[in-house]
Amino acid sequence: MTHSTPSLAGKTALVTGSTSGIGLGIAKKLAAQGANIMLNGFGEYQSAMNEIAAMGVQVDYHGADMSKPSDIEDLMAATAKRFGQCDILVNNAGIQHVATVQDFPTERWDAIIAINLSSAFHTSRLALPSMQASNWGRIINIASVHGLVGSAQKSAYVAAKHGIVGLTKVTALENATTGVTCNAICPGWVLTPLVQKQVDARAASLGVSNEEAKRGLLAEKEPSMQFTTPEELGDLAVFLCGPASGNIRGVSWQMDGGWSAQ
What we know:
Elements: E1 12-15, H1 21-32, E2 36-40, H2 46-53, E3 59-62, H3 69-83, E4 88-91, H4 106-134, E5 137-142, H5 155-174, E6 180-187, H6 193-206, H7 210-221, H8 230-241, E7 252-255
Parallel strand pairs: 1-2, 1-4, 2-3, 4-5, 5-6, 6-7
């Protein structure tokens, strides 16, 4: 099916944590539909900017530390200044730490709650007024299957992602009679640089190959035995920005290979 103009032409998408992995995958899919992109993250960003600029859209980068409300305010102001306003907000920035509750370092807990949960509140509160004024907006929170179920040794992450699911519902309800929607995407295992590190650690500690470590990781949780890809998540984000999803509100959409169906 061809469109004379890309479906998101003239819109601007801010994707947090988008220099690699899921965030970059989503940013590229939105750019392919004509959206201008504001990238953010701690990774090397020039290659991501080049890739997106090659799609014929405007792209910029802001290095906000998503644990700092003042940095987030600067990011939102810079997005508005550069592109007019933020039409599509994808809250994707996230970090992970694994430890039992009694051994969990308090500073790691605080950092995970700040980056994985509070940052989405700060970006949303700052993006909503202009979305409401134009009566169109899409907030897509990248939660996790861990927004719906728990796993041992991931207390902060699971708490933050459950929080994201709750924030998504409330944001959706408050804007239910408007053209502004808010939904969450809940991936299972995605082979991002973050997860590859877990695979490498598993391979090393068990003395097995990387492929075997991947299979072991998937076998524990994901019935499909395959990773979800950043491209698949990007396609779902594009759908949630489209006209068919105008009445999808407050949903947490699993892309987890059956993990949460068990």
